[in-house]
Amino acid sequence: LQRWAFWSFVIAAVTDFFDGWLARKLDAVTVWGAILDPIGDKVLVCGVILGLLALGGQPWIVLPTGLMLFREFTVSALREVGAGKGIKLPVTLLAKWKTTLQLTALAAALLVTSWAAFDLPSDPAVLGPVTIFTQVLLWGATIVTLITGAQYWEQTRKALRGV
What we know:
Elements (H helix, E strand, L loop, with lengths): L1 H24 L5 H25 L3 H26 L8 H21 L10 H39 L1
């Protein structure tokens, strides 16, 4: 089951990337795509985070993923508040990179937590460095996640003052 979860997540992440890339490349960006893509990204990110937390046993995952969840829900709330006042929060380039970092880090975390399900060698000389790399990747994604959250917070605050 964990292998299926990993591969399903990887396929969803890769198709999400190509969907956005193709839409921009072919100039096929639509209003519905602009609305639904961020929602799909949040569902994908939050879904895998909740799955990782449900697996348990990996305390190093809890804090960074909890911070990611907090940011995702906070930015969603900011978008709702802003929309009610006619304020739009466009997706920034850093936020696009944030999503890529999140998806990569979460795929790595899912792989590490599912390591045994893949029948990979449990030799600490192999698993140890992979786990450390995954932790660094996860914290890097978390830091960028928090930075973009702060940027959206400030953008919303300034826009609400002008309303």
